[in-house]
Write a structure and sequence with these properties.
Helix content: 25-40%
Shape: globular
Number of strands: 14
Order of helices and strands: EEEEEHEEEEHEEHHEEEHH
Structural class: alpha+beta
Largest sheet: 7 strands, antiparallel
């Protein structure tokens, strides 16, 4: 698929995105693909315009978070499928997960009914490693494996707590409940810790507050159909608000 940004050396191909170089070496171009994956890539499909919608949703949310004072990798949206982002010289190989309501792997692991309101948000760490299936770890594992330091983990934890609060507010404002979310972080050349990856229905669980209908990647995981429609619904509500 041809990309129409200023410079195009392919640096990295991920499950749902490609990363290209840019004429400014401190920046990169992230291209959103239409691929949908679940269960660590075992289940896969192409969903028409998913990349376009996720690019737009992520850009919308990143602009809101930047306005709230968060450091993110987002610079601007270039076109329907691509956004300009700050280059990370170091990516923390950890997924930082926050859960407000029991669902997905946590519900299964702990024998909880899906939809159980948790007494406190639950924060989890997963080791970003596809071969191992992104196993759940704790802070001591993260430090012992050299993935992070206790200081950095504390810093990220405070950011994730704030992110969770602000995203709950953003989604509440459009009649959507933030069930859980996955965040990734990296550092730019000057050492700034930035929120990276995307924030979209691929990386969050979003339920319609009134109907409890899934408006996220669970529609693909569970063969519920109408995936594009659900993602588009999130985008439309965000842009109307």
């Amino acid at each position: 698929m041809h990309s129409n940004h200023l410079q195009g050396e392919l640096l990295y191909t991920g499950k749902t995105k490609q990363v290209f170089s840019y004429d400014n070496p401190e920046l990169i171009v992230i291209h959103y693909k239409d691929d949908a994956l679940a269960y660590n890539g075992i289940k896969r499909a192409q969903i028409t315009n998913k990349g376009v919608i996720n690019n737009k949703i992520s850009a919308n949310i990143y602009q809101r978070l930047e306005a709230l004072g968060f450091n993110t990798h987002f610079v601007k949206m270039l076109n329907d499928r691509e956004q300009l982002c700050k280059r990370k010289v170091h990516l923390i190989q950890i997924e930082f997960i926050v859960r407000n309501i029991a669902a997905g792997s946590m519900a299964k692991r702990l024998g909880l009914k899906i939809g159980t309101q948790l007494k406190t948000p639950v924060y989890e760490l997963c080791y970003k490693n596809d071969e191992l299936g992104d196993p759940i770890i704790n802070a001591h594992h993260a430090v012992a494996l050299g993935l992070s330091t206790y200081e950095e983990l504390d810093e990220v934890h405070e950011i994730v707590k704030r992110l969770n609060k602000e995203l709950i507010n953003i989604f509440n404002g459009i009649g959507v409940t933030l069930v859980d979310a996955k965040f990734e972080f990296g550092r730019t050349a000057d050492g700034t810790l930035v929120l990276s990856d995307e924030i979209s229905p691929d990386t969050t669980r979003l339920w319609d507050t009134a109907t409890l209908e899934s408006l996220d990647r669970d529609r693909f995981r569970k063969d519920l159909g109408k995936i594009s429609e659900a993602y588009t619904e999130i985008f439309n509500r965000l842009t109307d608000n």
